[in-house]
From TrEMBL:
SUPFAM superfamilies: MFS general substrate transporter. Residues 1-23 are annotated as: Disordered. Keywords: Antibiotic resistance, Cell membrane, Membrane, Transmembrane, Transmembrane helix, Transport. This is DHA2 family efflux MFS transporter permease subunit. The chain crosses the membrane at residues 24-42, 62-83, 95-114, 120-143, 155-176, 182-204, 216-236, 242-260, 281-299, 319-338, 350-369, 381-401, 413-435, 455-478. Its main location: membrane. InterPro entries: EmrB-like (IPR004638), MFS (IPR011701), MFS_dom (IPR020846), MFS_trans_sf (IPR036259). It comes from Streptomyces alboniger. It is found in: Cell membrane. It is a multi-pass membrane protein. GO terms for molecular function: transmembrane transporter activity. The keyword Signal does not apply. Residues 10-23 have a biased composition (Low complexity).
Length: 485
């Protein structure tokens, strides 16, 4: 079934009666949902800055240290689609509250960890809790704000909180590690999680879900979870394996996806209704988001490396240097994004945002070895901030507007899954290209600093190409039809 599409992204009507509204304000509920997002976003960024301290304290090898990140990503990315669907079945509030509790508990276990195995296992448990929390949030937001203009405002606020969490995580990672120790980057989640958990129980409306009997396809769940976990594992460990091993892993993931699709086509009560992908807008928006996030991860990770390894910034100074981008994102999202989308439509706003992102990444492609933060980095950072502020709420509205209310949790899980896969893929490709270029130049006798800068420039040009591909795809696929189909 194809869904009607308009510039304001009105969702298709649900075949299920909505749950009765409670007495809580939708904006109070949004604040609770945003607090859960804030905690997971902060955690994702805070760990990166503290990695050297964790390695020194617990004695991780370089390959072993990567699993402090990889254990979280594999569990998080692998479970998003499954728990998004389960949220539709058992109730999104239940899934959100359970995820908050598990994430908070796992954060404490990370904070008190004194050996490598405990930390990696606790990080995987964090990934499970993060997936449970994140997968259902957008579906809950759609139900809270059925009116298009209010929904656009809510999505702008939600996206601004995510951007703020990224900057706050980078800043807190440097500040807490330098002032105290790395354990506190995890323990900081305890007070945040406790407050958010109490607020979620009291503020969020109860929803019963449609019941496990409506879609508890356990073989399908095993197939899609295995496929997603293998996909993320293949991406994040590509640098550790030979090309042949990576290809074998990728083929294995594709076979699991094919088996899952076959299972869903034949199952009486499928976990994932394949008709969801008949929505051109939902499918296209997820593909565009994957490309956009892949390019933006280049800015976050490679940009931090440039500041530290080329310009000589310390951890805390790097965190402070990244603040202008999320500040710009937050100000523009809260003040302009919803108004711009309401005036010009989500499609045009998305195109403008992707054009700015592409331009910002291309500008970073000329960073010199003796560059200046103010002259060379900051202008591109502001372009990227403005572009993301326009593009992210627009693509979110398009993706969620293409799903029916009964599939909102699944659509939310799918949207978050494409973020994780896009970010992981972009990071793997761009860091590999940068390292290969640098090694090639130093092998030919080039100055190490100049070779490092040249490797980063290549990565930024490729990131700009990825963002440009997202722009072309959005222009071709997401243009609203005249007949609304």
């Amino acid at each position: 079934m194809s869904h009607a599409v308009s510039e304001v992204n009105t969702p298709a009507p649900s075949r299920r009666s909505p749950a009765p509204r409670g007495t809580a304000s939708p904006w109070a509920s949004l604040a609770v949902l945003s607090s859960g997002l804030l905690m997971t976003i902060i955690d994702g960024n805070i760990v990166t800055v503290a990695m050297p301290a964790i390695q020194a304290d617990l004695g991780f090898s370089a390959a072993g240290l990567a699993w402090v990140v990889n254990a979280y990503l594999i569990a998080f990315g692998g479970l998003l689609l499954l728990v998004g669907r389960l949220g539709d079945l058992v109730g999104r509030k239940r899934m959100f509250v359970a995820g908050l509790g598990l994430f908070t508990l796992a954060s404490v276990l990370c904070g008190v960890a004194t050996d490598q195995g405990v930390l990696v296992a606790a990080r995987a448990l964090q990934g499970v809790g993060g997936a449970m929390t994140s997968a259902v949030v957008l579906g809950m937001l759609v139900a809270l704000f059925p009116e298009p203009r209010e929904r656009a405002r809510a999505i702008a606020v939600f996206s601004a909180v995510g951007a703020a969490g990224g900057a706050l995580g980078t800043f807190l990672g440097g500040a807490l590690t330098e002032a105290l120790n790395w354990h506190w980057i995890f323990l900081i989640n305890l007070p945040i999680g406790a407050v958010a958990l109490v607020a979620a129980v009291r503020v969020l409306d109860n929803d019963r879900g449609s019941g496990l009997g409506q879609g508890a396809d356990y073989p399908g769940a095993a197939l899609i979870t295995g496929a997603l976990m293998l996909t993320v594992y293949t991406i994040v460990t590509a640098a550790e394996h030979s090309t042949a091993v990576t290809v074998v892993l990728a083929v294995g993931a594709l076979l699991l996806y094919a088996a899952f699709a076959l299972r869903q086509a034949r199952a009486k009560k499928p976990l994932l209704r394949l008709r969801l992908f008949r929505s051109r807008v939902l499918t296209g928006a997820n593909a565009v988001q994957m490309l956009m996030i892949a390019g933006m991860y280049g800015f976050q990770y490679i940009g931090a490396l440039y500041l530290q390894r080329v310009l000589g910034f310390g951890e805390l100074r790097t965190g402070v240097a990244f603040l202008p981008a999320p500040i710009a994102i937050g100000v523009l999202m809260l003040g302009l994004s919803a108004k711009v989308i309401g005036r010009f439509g989500a499609h045009r706003t998305l195109l403008a945002g992707l054009a700015l992102i592409t331009s910002g990444l291309a500008l970073l492609g000329r960073l010199p070895a003796d560059g200046s933060y103010v002259l060379d980095v900051l202008p591109a950072m502001l372009l990227l901030g403005a572009g993301f502020a326009a593009a992210m709420p627009a693509v979110t509205g398009l993706a969620m507007g293409g799903a029916e209310e009964e599939d909102a949790g699944l659509a939310s899980g799918l949207f978050n899954t494409t973020q994780v896969v896009g970010g992981s893929l972009g990071l793997a490709v761009l860091t590999t290209l940068a390292a290969s270029r640098t090694e090639s130049l130093t092998g030919r006798g080039a100055d190490a600093l100049a070779a490092t800068a040249d490797g980063y420039r290549l990565a930024f040009w490729v990131a700009a190409g990825i963002a440009a591909a997202g722009l072309a795809l959005a222009a071709a696929i997401l243009r609203p039809s005249r007949d609304g189909q």
